[in-house]
User: What shape does this take?
Amino acid sequence: MGKYLWICILLISGFLLSCGPDQNLQQVNMMMWQGDPVINSYMKTYVVPELKKQGIDLQLVSGQGTEIVSTLMTEIEAGKTDSEIDVVWVNGETFFQLKQINGLYGPIWDSLSNIAYVDTSSSFIKYDFQQLVNGYEAPWGTIQMIMIHDEKRAPQPPSNPKALKEWVKANPGKFTLSNDFTGMSFLKLLLIEFAGGSEAIKGPFQSDIYQQAGDSLWNYIREIQPYFWRKGETFPEGLAAMHRLFANGEIDLSISMNDNGVDNKVLEGLFPPSAKGYAWKSGIIKNSHFLGIPSRSPHKSGALKTINFLLSPEAQYKKLQPDGWGDGTSLSLNLLPEEWKEKFRSTQQRKQTPPRSEIEQYAVMEPAPEYMIRLYDDFAKKIIDGEE
Amino acid sequence: MHRILSYINAGFFFLLIVLPLGGGLIYSFLYSIGGLGLLNEEISGKALLTIWEEGTFLKSLFYSVYIALLSIGISVALSLTLTLGIKLPSRENPYWMYMPLALPGMVVAFLMFQWLSRTGVFSRVMFQAGIISEITDFPVLIQDELGLGIIIAHVLMATPFFWIFFRGLYQTERVKELGGISASLGAQKHQILWKVKIPVLLQQGLPTIILYFLFVLGSYEIPLLLGQSSPQMLSVTIIRKLERFNLLDKPEGYAMIWMYALIVLVAVYAILSLHQKRKAS
Assistant: This one.
């Protein structure tokens, strides 16, 4: 009995010791959204082992948007000098929030050798939600919003507001908006159109423009709301719920902020092969997603090394593959060495959505973050609660 | 010695329960009035005013009370019917009675979604059987206006619990014997049921019923998955306020936390005091 007990204790101790951090590696904690298996697979099976070779023990922590902001906010409020997080994956709204609390370390661009391959003069890199990035975050990838339809159920999908209105009325119950970032981004797209195009809404938030375009937007939505899924009385809480409705056949159109999203979902088996991505012809939102370092990160050198690797041509090329994550690269092909240029150009094309070069022509920039705040509030009041 | 032990017990209770919870409430209060928080610049009652003016808090509170009352009401009625109507072979509770209690709220919510949604199992079976001509003809039971999905999920979780609970009370309170005495004094069957058995079980079980009511009132996962966009139960509304894109909404979320806690504490104190008085009299 005693012998078995000792064996058990030794085995457990060995296991626990093997779980501890490797003293020869620098630990870097990265907080990121872990809701997509293809992204998780890219990070766990490629990035983590590659960084280990460079002396970095990358630990992935689940968290996104408000979770990142709340964690950093609480640390600052509590007077904690060393943050638990060293790298964060952020989009424009999180960047806006982190700027409000001075939560980011930087500028970091000068410390990243691979930033040489990024076209930093591009407005999609220079600005995030119309805010000057100023080197406080490094571009990890680019995405474009795409519309999704099932070519069997909806062979002629709408691609502008007028066509959408007609389509929704002709197909009651087959369209909805998710009450989250993606749904609000689609409203933002409509708002840009009602404001007179992306040039009209460029720059800092302007209340009068929002008021005028917003009135047209809400009138438009109210007119078609009775023809939405469940008569527009309720809305799916998130993108996953909306995709589930699309996969179940309850709705015939969906939206994704990842232009490779349809290929991913078809490969996962969630969407049928008849699901196709297409561009909203009157403009699609394009943005970059970034990596930042919290101002109180205790491992800034490791964090910089991690971000630099994620920006490297090899890591970006791997990320671009459509049978994997399929995320758009933040690197400029013109700035890459010849051998990489060729590799990037000969990347296998995706099957469910037109190539990026084809939909790129419709790309518009994100408006200022305050538009999103107002859209969230007004959607809740005017559409969900039905206030005048 | 006895007094020292009770002081130690009170000390532990204070350290482990009162301090963290009370501290949290004080933190919420200070955050809501601008006394704490990175983005709060001055002390003001703006957040409190906003949530009263918006009406979101009251709407969510009334909706939560409605859901909790109906869920507990149906569960208690069902479990009383089972306790008094079904005679199990043994006084011991059979193993299968405990099984539903092992399921977490999130799992029950997912199961409800799979069974009761318009593309769920029931809908498909009815469609295949030709009872409905379109899958979308199935009644809306999930994310519906009346919160039926939430209520059904809570009833499924609460009924086995109350059944086991009332079966225990039935024995400890000697309800069967009380019924026998009433019968020997000439009471009819329905009088024994309505004037002896049910009142005894309800009166003795009231504190537990209230505790379960509070559990449903503050539930999160089930209404998050099965509830509609508006109105939402209070926990869902609070979390949404705290996690909003607009960081300036955070004080409103904290205001809702302490106001909810205050209302519940006052209501529970009032109900339990009344219950104690009635028992004493």
Summary: The longest helix of chain A spans residues 2-19. The mean pLDDT of chain A is 91.
